[in-house]
Every structure is written in structure tokens, then in C-alpha cells.
């Protein structure tokens, strides 16, 4: 099967750099577990030796996990139904 309707991942570089250059703590997200919508800054953060876990301030379920490795960071956002970030694209 040949699918030519996609672009190389580098095509997303501009948008991704725009997204991750913003203050993510000001972003709003929705908890996948309870549906609470709040700014990331309102999440409860539990730092540990490898990174941190962000938990929903309403139900306590995990919203996101950040794991630091040498030279990179892994981000698990499975606990967020969505994440809304402000960008300057007007
Ligand atoms: Zn929740």
C-alpha cells in the first residue's frame, strides 16, 4: 500500500516550535477522567527523581507525566482529553 498523503515529520517543526515556545502553564486542559477544565498551572505537581507527575486538582487522576533523560524529556499526556495553547497565528 502506498500512501502519499502525508508529509515528513519535519513539516510540523514550525508549528511544534511555536507550541512549545509558549508558556504551557497558561494552557487549559481537560481531565480525561472527570472532565474538569482548568489551566495547567492549577494541576497538582508531584516531582520525583526522574521528572514529575501532574494530577488533576479536581479528581487527583494523572493528567501528564514528564520524564527527564540525558538530553531529552518524554511527555505522557494520556490523562488530558485535550490541551489548548494560545499561539500568535493571526
Ligand atoms: Zn480530573
Characterise this structure.
The chain is mainly beta and 90 residues long. It has one helix and seven strands. It has one domain (9-84). The strands form two sheets. It has a four-stranded antiparallel sheet with strand order 3-4-5-6, with no helix packed on it. The protein binds zinc ion (ZN).
Judged by helices, strands and strand pairing, the structural class is: mainly beta
Bound molecules: zinc ion
Largest sheet: 4 strands, antiparallel
DSSP summary, beta strand count? 7
Q: Note the run of SSEs as H and E.
A: HEEEEEEE
Physical arrangement of strands within the biggest beta sheet: 3-4-5-6
Oligomer: single chain
The number of helical segments is 1
Helix content: under 10%
What is the molecular shape? globular
Task: Describe the SSE topology.
Layout: H1 13-20, E1 28-31, E2 37-39, E3 44-48, E4 51-55, E5 62-69, E6 72-76, E7 80-84
Antiparallel strand pairs: 1-2, 1-7, 3-4, 4-5, 5-6
TL;DR?
The chain is mostly beta strands and 90 residues long.
Provide the descriptors you would attach to this structure in a database record:
single chain; 90 residues; mainly beta; four-stranded antiparallel β-sheet; three-stranded antiparallel β-sheet; 7 strands; binds zinc ion
Amino acid at each position: 500500500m502506498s500512501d502519499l498523503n502525508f508529509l515528513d515529520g519535519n513539516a510540523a517543526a514550525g508549528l511544534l516550535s511555536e507550541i512549545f515556545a509558549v508558556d504551557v502553564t497558561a494552557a487549559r486542559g481537560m481531565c480525561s477522567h472527570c472532565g474538569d477544565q482548568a489551566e495547567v498551572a492549577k494541576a497538582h505537581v508531584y516531582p520525583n527523581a526522574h521528572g514529575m507527575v501532574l494530577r488533576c486538582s479536581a479528581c487527583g487522576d494523572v493528567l501528564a507525566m514528564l520524564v527527564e533523560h540525558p538530553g531529552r524529556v518524554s511527555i505522557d499526556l494520556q490523562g488530558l482529553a485535550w490541551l489548548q495553547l494560545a499561539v500568535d497565528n493571526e
